[in-house]
Amino acid sequence: MRTSVTRVLTGAAGLALMGVGASLLLDVPDLTGVVVWLGGAVVLHDALIAPLVLLIGLVLVRGGARGPVRGALLVAGALTAVALPVLLRPGKPANSSVLPLDYPRNWLLTLVAVATVTALVLAARRTRRSRRRPPS
Question: Which of 71, 83, 98, 128 is an S-S bond match for 107, by CB 3.0 to 4.6 Å?
Fold first, then answer.
């Protein structure tokens, strides 16, 4: 019963946020840049990120670690896709308030956080499995 209530509330929140996003899109004077960016993100994901993640997960990781590693790679790829415009535009912007933070450093810190959480999940799984096995 709790699961269905959670799903309904999560779905309602998602619909509300989609409405906010749609209303913000209506204020954009030229949608061409938005459409190109979204199309590029889809192509980047489907042609590069997803196949690489599946290949790396298949080749490098065996057993129960494959799921968390693939998840971490997908999150890292999505973060990189979102950060690409800032990462590919070197130098300081003309207006210092446009990009006031150190985005490349923050992107790297976020990737380190993803790797750390993935390592903790794998360690917790390993600990749980070792506790379940009876001593031999």
Answer: 83
Residues 40 and 65 in one domain: yes
Our count of domains for the chain comes to 2
Are residues 79 and 125 located together in one domain of the fold? yes
pLDDT in tens, 112-126: 999 999 999 999 988
Query: End-to-end alpha-carbon separation of the chain, Å?
Result: 41
Please state, in angstroms and rounded to a whole number, the distance separating the CA atoms of residues 44 and 46: 6
pLDDT in tens, 57-74: 777 777 777 788 888 988
CB 84 within 8 A of CB 97: no
Domain housing 6:
1-29
